[in-house]
Amino acid sequence: MTKKYTKLIIALISVLVAFSVVVVSTYAWLTLSNNPVAEGIHVAIGGSGTILIAPDISEQADGVTYHYPGVFQEQINFSQWQSYDYLQNLAGLSPVSTADGRNWFVPTYYAAKDPEVVAGDAVMGQIKPAEAHIKDIVLSYANLPISQQEKAREGSYVYLDFWVVSPGGDYQLRISAGDSFSHTGSFLLGLPRVEKTEDGYHLTYGNDSVAASARIGFLTNTGAVLDNSMQYYARSTYYSNQYSSLRGYYEEPGMSCNNMPGDRFTIYEPNGDLHPETVFTLLGDEILDGQYAFTKPIGKDGQPVSVRDRLTVQLRNSWLNNEYGLALEPLFQASIAGKTLGSGEEKELERDFYFRYLQQQTSTFLSRGQFLPNTGMLYGQEESVLSAEQLQSLGTAGATEDVMIVELEKNVPQRIRMFVWLEGQDPDCIGFADSVPFAIGLELAGGHG
Predict the structure, then answer these.
(1) Which of 3, 92, 352, 390 could form a disulfide with 37 if both were Cys (CB 3.0 to 4.6 A apart)?
(2) In this predicted structure, what is the pLDDT of residue 199?
(3) pLDDT in tens, 337-358
(4) Percentage of residues in the chain having pLDDT higher than 90
(5) Cα 154 from Cα 144, distance rounded (Å)
(6) Closest Cα to residue 156, out of 90, 111, 68?
(7) pLDDT computed for residue 182 by the predictor
(8) Biggest alpha carbon–alpha carbon distance for the chain
(9) In this structure, what are the phi and psi dihedrals at residue 383, rounded to the nearest 5 degrees?
(10) How confident is the model at residue 127 (pLDDT cuts 50, 70, 90)?
(11) Distance, CA of 436 to CA of 19 (rounded, Å)
(12) Under a CB-based contact definition with an 8 Å cutoff, are residues 214 and 438 in contact?
């Protein structure tokens, strides 16, 4: 990178997700018989006091929900805050598409009685054209609870809100690869599975098509919050008189919201060159592992659009190995030592290992990919699929220089809405993927523009 960015925030998220996939067509979407279910999210963020983070606190009065920050600090664990309890009760994730974080598109499929199927122009279960998808602008398919599993199978995504503030000055926030020495950095990667063999239970790493098609997005706007949120904040136990205004306004579930001043949606695409299996784009190009294929999510008008001004691409992440194979293997063996094991206990052993034994701390066992330094240069290529050699010619960096999350103003708390979803327009969003839990880590970095 041509600019030097100071590490500001480290965020570690572990998300365990279980799902299975049923293929209905060769289009770049998939459907799920059992959704990816988020079984727990752990988040810690720190920045040596340069940038502080707070959980989102909300109050309802007279039918209005007011949002303000909790205590700003260097590290928080979202699982310790009651306002995020909904994350422990999610029905799951299934493919959707968005280019702006406000307009979400849920896929629809041809039924036996549809005229196109009757006429022989389509087959039952085939994906319908993008303009026929369900458009969700009121968070109808977001954070669906277990009680709405059937709806979640149509399409679902997850979001959470948090606040950041910059006491030290004005900064631009970006997603960062982090520091390999301190085991920080951003990543999204499927967790190794427990498998029973002739000589006992072991960890094995398989297909990672979900990691290849997953996305994380940050919706921000710099408009001042004009409702009574500041008054509620000033009366709360979390208030600090350093802050006289709040920024960032977003719709509540069930209500639509027009674009706000400074509206911005930054899409983080991890594992951009990861393709677990050979896939095909809608243009018929063969995509091999190690190449990069452009994804065009569906825009607000219902058609695929370019996201060159809001996309940051990271190259693949991978699990570390040692003389035992996976570096996690010795710890896993230690976690099951002395246990009386029966058959069919793989899922319970996984849960015990990742949640109870490791406490969701997997970041030290990962190798994180670097970022492509310039999205504009990436999109300057004429091809829809870039070879590994073409990617290497673009270079790598610790963050994408020409794409940022938001401009932070000194001592002005900024609310950020973070989304996690499976991008149905990604070419890897096809095929069969057997129950794959995955881990997410985020590090935000910033510097003067």
Answers:
(1) 92
(2) 86
(3) 988 877 778 888 988 998 889 8
(4) 39
(5) 11
(6) 90
(7) 63
(8) 68
(9) -75, 155
(10) confident
(11) 7
(12) yes
* Tokens representing residue 179 in the block: 């520091």
Amino acid 42: pLDDT: 41
Report the candidate in 258, 257, 249, 256 with the shortest Cα–Cα distance to residue 222.
249
**Helix/strand/coil (H/E/C) assignment for every residue in the chain:** CCCCCEEEEEEEEEECCCCEEECCCCCCCCEEEECCCCCCEEEEEECCCCCEEEEEEEEEECCEEEEEECCCECCCCHHHCHHHHHHHHECCCECEECCCCCCEEECCECCCCCHHHHCCCCCCCCECCHHHCEEECCCCCECCEHHHHHHHHHCEEEEEEEEEEECCCCEEEEEECCCCCCCCCCEEEECCEEEEECCEEEEECCCCHHHHHEEEEEEECCCECCCCHHHHHHHCCCCCCCCCCCECCCCCCCCCCCCCCCCEEEEEECCCCCCCCCEECCCCCEECCCCEECCCCECCCCCECCCCCCEEEECCCEECEECCEECCHHHHHHHHCCCCCCCCCHHHHHHHHHHHHCCCCCHHHEECCCECCCHHHHCCCCCCEECHHHHHHCCCECECCCCCCEEECECCCEEEEEEEEEECCCCCCCCCCCCCCEEEEEEEEEECC
How many C-alpha atoms does 214 have within 13 Å on its Cβ side? 26
Residues sharing a CB contact under 8 Å with residue 155, sequence separation 6 or more, in sequence order: 94, 95, 96, 104, 105, 106, 107, 134, 136, 141, 424
What is the pTM assigned to this prediction? 0.89
**Residue range 39-94, pLDDT digits in tens:** 444 444 434 557 788 999 999 988 889 999 999 887 676 767 788 888 878 887 88
One-letter amino acid at 65 equals: T
Residue 242, pLDDT score: 92
- The Cβ-side half-sphere exposure at 372, using a 13 Å CA radius, reads 29
241 CB-contact burial (10 Å; exposed 0-12 / middle 13-18 / buried 19+): exposed
Q: Which residues pair with 46 in a beta bridge?
A: 10
CA 324-328-334 angle, to 5 degrees, is 85
Query: Which residue from 260, 243, 248 is spatially nearest to 224, judged by alpha carbons?
Result: 248
Give the separation between CA 408 and CA 164, rounded to whole angstroms.
8
Residue type, 48: S
